[in-house]
Amino acid sequence: MTDLFQEPDEATPLDPDERAGLLQDWIATRAELNAAEQDNIDTAAAWVFRRRRAPILSVEFTNDLHRRMFNDVWAWAGTYRATERNVGVAPYMIGVQMAQLFDDANYWVDHETYPADEIAVRLHHRLVAIHPYPNGNGRLSRMMADLLIQRLGQPAFSWGSEVLGGQIADMGELRRQYIAALRAADRHDITALMEFARS
Q1: How far apart are CA 62 and CA 146, in angstroms?
Q2: Largest Cα–Cα separation, the chain
Q3: Taking Cα atoms as reference points, which of 37, 53, 51 lies closest to residue 134?
Q4: Taking each helix axis from N to C terminus, what angle separates 137-151 and 59-70, rounded to the nearest 10 degrees?
């Protein structure tokens, strides 16, 4: 049996209090946890993609979306983390950083500061960099980017899925590419992350 809380390389581990927030006592393996989270995410995606006119670039919407993505699995769904992580801002800065992000993102959209793909990828990167929730930050950030890019009239991103059908069949290698692209974006080079989003 694999450790239920064993995270993939580079993932942020949950602290004991966050682990205690697991709502489903039938979940005993990492595979069961992944399946339960994916079912919850699929339900949230069906909900969110039906709301074509809802304002998505807000703190309130993002917290609600995270809650809907994980509320059947985790008690803390939609709630900011209160613990330090190996990535992300200090917990006391999350609220301020999230408000600033959505002020910036609304400005980018209203003023067409960047091309559509770049706006959505910048939103994704900043959400991951803030890392507001105990877990699920990458999945939430990719869904937010997909929502935004479609609102801007472009197709959703593939996030490496086309690469999986081609030269890379290893999810570990795909994750390494994604993490490397995020780290490059941390150094203000967003090119690799934009390429990964469309790969």
Answers
A1: 13
A2: 52
A3: 37
A4: 120
Tell me what pLDDT residue 9 has: 52
Burial class (CB in 10 A: 0-12, 13-18, 19+), 90: exposed
pTM: 0.90
Question: In whole angstroms, what is the distance from residue 2 CA to residue 77 CA?
Answer: 24
Q: Which helix (H) or strand (E) holds 103?
A: helix 94-111
Of 118, 150, 136, 166, the closest CA to residue 40 belongs to 136
What is the per-residue DSSP string for 73-92? TBTTTTS---S--SSS--GG
Here the tokens at position 25 are: 């006592």
Q: Which of 110, 136, 117 is nearest to 197 (CA)?
A: 117
The residue whose two tokens read 């992944």 is 34
DSSP state of 42: H
Task: Write the pLDDT tens digit of every residue in 82-100.
Answer: 999 989 999 999 999 999 9
**Domains plus CATH for the chain?**
16-157 (1.10.3290.10)
